[in-house]
Amino acid sequence: MLHSGDSVTQLAEPLVGRDAELAVLEGLLDEAREGTHKFAVVSGEPGIGKTSVLGELARRAEDRGCLVLEGRATELERALPFGLLIDTFDAYLESLDPRTYDRLVADGLEELAAVFPWLRSLGAGSAEPRTAAERFRAHYAVRELIERLAARQPLVLLFDDIHWSDGASLELLG
Ligand SMILES: Nc1ncnc2c1ncn2[C@@H]1O[C@H](COP(=O)(O)OP(=O)(O)OP(=O)(O)O)[C@@H](O)[C@H]1O
Ligand SMILES: [Mg+2]
């Protein structure tokens, strides 16, 4: 049973009749693990099993040694700038040991702190970016962060319920 607080990786019920979808996603996963960027959109009617498919993909990716980070947009957080990105990355950034942190984050600290509360709480940088130039720098810094993460370990980012996403996250994903 799916409760509202469940994350996609916590779902454990066996999936029925999704072999074709999972085969496509697994093919993309294999190519991504070889070093090519891959991108897939999972769409469908309410309750049809999108979150479940993402959960199965997450399990398979973790079994193959990928780092899986997942975020979910919610109606209530629609007004929170970068809410979806925060949900995806903030707790992971908080969990980093100091050396990894230096390698991954230190360069773009000021710009990343404009997006992620954990980095702001450490005393870094600024409030949320307002001008187009500030937003562009924040997007660039997140992109760099993703590239550095992916250079260490195959990386799978899962964004669930994007239709509820805040505008800042959508702009960045775009
Ligand atoms: N292929 C499947 N086999 C077995 N159970 C499934 C399958 N797909 C979905 N379910 C079950 O149906 C319910 C709804 O699935 P899920 O939450 O994944 O759908 P969703 O498309 O993400 O829904 P929403 O649009 O509300 O986000 C869950 O209880 C899930 O375990
Ligand atoms: Mg869902």
List the helices and strands and how they pair.
Layout: H1 19-33, H2 50-63, E1 67-72, H3 83-95, H4 98-104, H5 109-113, H6 117-121, H7 132-152, E2 155-160, H8 167-173
Parallel strand pairs: 1-2
The protein binds adenosine-5'-triphosphate and magnesium ion.
Summarize this, please?
This protein has 174 residues and is mainly α. The protein has one domain (8-173): Rossmann fold (3-Layer(aba) Sandwich).
Structure report:
The model has no long low-confidence stretch (mean pLDDT about 90). It is globular and about 50 Å long. The chain has about 170 residues and is mostly helical. It has helices at about 20-35, 50-65, 85-95, 100-105, 110-115, 115-120, 130-150, 165-174, and strands spanning about 65-70, 155-160. The protein contains eight helices and two strands, in the order H-H-E-H-H-H-H-H-E-H. Helix 1 (about 20-35) crosses helix 2 (about 50-65). It has a single domain, classed as Rossmann fold. Helices cover about 50% and strands about 5% of the residues. The chain has a two-stranded parallel ribbon with strand order 1-2. The chain starts with 18 loop residues before the first helix and ends with a helix. Bound molecules: adenosine-5'-triphosphate and magnesium ion (MG).
Tags for this entry?
two-stranded parallel ribbon, binds adenosine-5'-triphosphate, 8 helices, 174 residues, mainly alpha, binds magnesium ion, globular, Rossmann fold, single chain
